[in-house]
Design brief:
single chain; 389 residues; mainly alpha; Serine Threonine Protein Phosphatase 5, Tetratricopeptide repeat; elongated
């Protein structure tokens, strides 16, 4: 669980033992070289024995203790590793790696509270080390210090933005923080409209749409003018296949907030499906006027224009959309269709070539991950248990 990259430290000859004192204790170098040779052939036990000789020759020299501790950790001897690592930090309190692996050894054996101090020291001494921030953040998470865990893990991500383990742990910290705040809201006023909204969202995530609908309706009963409430219920109705109910809720949302571009886009889509072209076009136009970069609004607008046999204006809208999202293959297909209606066959063919290339790329990527995605999607079955306390 708390595995660190010991090999990089071992190979780096953190093993500054050879850098000083060679004249006073000439055997150091020989033992250090023999330890290095043992590491090269994978004999960690032999390397530990050689470092033990360095310790015997100079018991006040910190690095050999650290080396022994790191090798014990690398060997999976988590109960043994803290001893020499603690001795190293006692002799040289500025040895950051020793503090880090002391904390990791303690955490690996479940002693999270005791691990906190050495990991804090490591983070202080190694402020630009993503692993130091990561492991301290992870222990804070395990101790229920969610806010601090999130802050530390955010620091680590800035240093190492592509560390999947770190990002995953940060997501866990955010989830725990959210649950803590939800519990806080519930304890303050369990009948508040936000509580019903919160449980509606939770039921919706569990695919228990009937329970979610009940919670959202109660939310709106408590606060009929809550902006975003009707849109939430409308989105749920779309998932339930209730297009007419969804459209009604989007229109109610727009009566409260006529500037909600998200509701305008979704309502336009439902109207287009119902062949109410003029109204669908009007809603898409309003969304574009407020947010010209909304690709879906321009797509819907273009589809309405094609229905009204206005391909030239549809082409203009789709070209604007492609500038925002050049990798949307469906946009390319629709643009090719609109171009053909204007008689621009060569341009339409070029768009279809782009569409074909994007489709091949999409299929290749989907083939790589499709199996896991399909399994994950199949797990999304309606829940049958209440998640309310």
């Amino acid at each position: 669980m708390f595995m660190g990259d010991v090999s990089s430290l071992v190979a780096a000859g953190f093993l500054c033992a050879v850098l000083c004192g060679a004249e006073e204790i000439p055997l150091w170098q020989r033992h250090m070289e023999q330890a290095g040779a043992a590491r090269q052939r994978g004999d960690l036990g032999g390397a530990i024995k050689e470092y033990a000789e360095v310790v015997r020759l100079n018991p006040r020299f910190a690095p050999p203790y650290m080396n022994i501790g790191l090798l014990e950790y690398a060997s999976g001897h988590y109960q043994v590793a803290p001893g020499p690592l603690e001795k190293a930090t006692e002799l040289d309190p500025k040895l950051g790696p020793a503090w880090l692996y002391l904390g990791l050894s303690l955490a690996q054996t479940g002693r999270y509270q005791i691990a906190l101090k050495p990991l804090e020291m490591a983070h202080q001494l190694l402020p630009h080390d993503a692993q130091a921030a990561f492991h301290l953040g992870r222990v804070c998470l395990l101790l229920g210090q969610y806010q601090r865990a999130a802050q530390l893990l955010e620091q680590g991500q800035k240093i190492d933005p592509r560390n999947v383990e770190l990002i995953y742990t940060l997501a866990q910290a955010y989830l725990q923080l959210a649950r803590t705040k939800q519990d806080e809201v519930l304890s303050i006023d369990p009948d508040h409209y936000r509580v019903y909204e919160m449980f509606g969202q939770l039921y919706e995530q569990e695919n228990d749409f009937v329970a979610a609908e009940s919670e959202y309706k109660e939310m709106l009963r408590k606060h009929p003018e809550h902006q975003g409430g009707h849109a939430a219920l409308a989105s749920l109705y779309e998932k339930m296949g209730k297009a007419d109910d969804a459209l009604s809720e989007y229109e109610l949302e727009l009566s409260l907030n006529p500037y909600d571009s998200g509701s305008l886009v979704r309502a336009s889509s439902l109207l287009l499906q119902d062949k109410k072209i003029d109204k669908a076009l009007s809603f898409a136009q309003r969304a574009i006027a407020m947010n010209p970069g909304i690709v879906e609004a321009r797509r819907l607008y273009a589809q309405c224009l094609l229905e009204q046999n206005q391909p030239a204006e549809a082409v203009r809208q789709l070209r604007a959309a492609v500038k925002v999202d050049s990798g949307d293959r469906n946009l390319r297909f629709l643009l090719a269709k609109a171009l053909r209606k204007t008689g621009s066959e060569a341009e339409a063919d070029e768009e279809m070539r782009i569409f074909d290339r994007l489709t091949r790329e999409w299929r290749a990527a989907d083939k790589e991950r499709g199996g896991r995605l399909e399994k994950a999607l199949k797990k999304g079955t309606p829940g049958d248990q209440s998640i309310r306390p």
